[in-house]
């Protein structure tokens, strides 16, 4: 046996087999069977090694295709994806000294257009003067309002994309803003999404200006101009105590980075009002059952609770 320790792999195996078979009363047939087994094992290992290498190659080809602008599958986990679960026990406090400035949200737009795109409800508006915008706080510049989209589901216990302590809200309203100095181009930088979660309550009169028109966009592809109302009806301004984290858009192309602010106080919606959303249909003519992207891993990101520090 000592002699065997110094020889090459095959010799070593052979020595080991010899010793084993001599112990098993020197049966040559047994020796042969064991040798065949060992050879098969070795072949299997080599084969699976090759198979593994091939799989890695095809995966990197897919990633290459993604970089070339080919559609990225919805569920592929990239870094810093949205939505996330917000764990209220794991927030990091962050203080800011300059107040948030919400401008022009109480102006009445020239027109408001609702559209059912088969996946969600979109609200866009045209303004007579300046586009509503948010500034101040830790923001590096002014962010202009672009559009609002909504997430809901047939079930009371799901609907929102973001969860707080793993609980969904029945409705989430996401208000997309872009860096005011990028000429309206939505690039990988300069996106701010302000999100509001809802809870069941009485009718929310501010939302009736929207909800009463949903009957006109029940089919996918339908759009309607509605009597204009200030966006501030839907988007109450807040000045402190909001969550923030760095994420992405939740629809393709999901890799576009976005800063997310989530207003921690829930807005009110009644079941009657939510049911109007639940009537909207997709491109196949079926009612949209749910339209939230699943919660994505937080990985090494931090979720902040942002507080305005008064007195500075
Ligand atoms: C959903 O919530 C509403 C409002 O609380 C309630 O009236 C309704 O019965 C709930 N539906 C189900 C299926 O639980």
From TrEMBL:
Pfam families linked to this entry: Carb_anhydrase (PF00194)
SUPFAM superfamilies the record matches: Carbonic anhydrase
Sorted UniProt keywords: Membrane, Transmembrane, Transmembrane helix
Keyword Ribosomal protein included in the entry's annotation: no
A GO term for molecular function: carbonate dehydratase activity
GO cellular component, one term: cytoplasm
Membrane-crossing segments per the record: 29-50
Domain Alpha-carbonic anhydrase: 48-307
Similarity section: Belongs to the alpha-carbonic anhydrase family.
PANTHER family linked: CARBONIC ANHYDRASE, CARBONIC ANHYDRASE 13-RELATED
Protein's UniProt name: Alpha-carbonic anhydrase domain-containing protein
């Amino acid at each position: 046996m000592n002699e065997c320790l110094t020889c090459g792999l095959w010799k070593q195996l052979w020595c080991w087999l010899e010793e084993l078979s001599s112990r098993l009363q020197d049966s040559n047939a047994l020796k042969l069977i064991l040798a065949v087994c060992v050879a098969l094992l070795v072949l299997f290992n080599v084969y699976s090694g090759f198979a593994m290498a091939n799989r890695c190659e095809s995966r990197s080809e897919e990633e290459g295709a993604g970089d070339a602008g080919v559609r990225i599958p919805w569920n592929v986990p990239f870094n810093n994806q949205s939505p996330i679960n917000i764990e209220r026990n794991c927030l990091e406090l962050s203080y800011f000294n300059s107040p948030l400035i919400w401008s022009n949200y109480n102006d009445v737009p020239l027109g408001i257009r609702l559209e059912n795109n088969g996946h969600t409800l979109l609200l866009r508006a045209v303004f007579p003067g300046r586009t509503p915008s948010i500034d101040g706080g830790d923001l590096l510049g002014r962010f202009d309002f672009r559009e609002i989209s909504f997430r809901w589901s047939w079930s009371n216990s799901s609907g929102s994309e973001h969860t707080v302590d793993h609980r969904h809200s029945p409705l989430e309203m996401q208000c997309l803003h872009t860096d005011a100095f990028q000429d309206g181009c939505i690039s990988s930088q300069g996106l701010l999404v302000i999100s509001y979660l809802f809870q069941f309550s009485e009718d929310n009169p501010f939302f009736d200006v929207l909800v009463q028109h949903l009957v006109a966009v029940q089919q996918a592809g339908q759009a309607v101009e509605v009597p204009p109302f200030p966006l501030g009806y839907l988007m109450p301004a807040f000045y402190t105590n909001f969550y923030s984290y760095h994420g992405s858009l939740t629809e393709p192309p999901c890799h576009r980075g976005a800063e997310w602010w989530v207003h921690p106080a829930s807005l009110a919606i009644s079941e009657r009002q939510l049911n109007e959303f639940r009537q909207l249909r997709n491109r196949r003519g079926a009612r949209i059952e749910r339209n939230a992207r699943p919660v994505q891993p937080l990985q090494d990101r931090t979720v902040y609770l942002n507080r305005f520090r008064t007195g500075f």
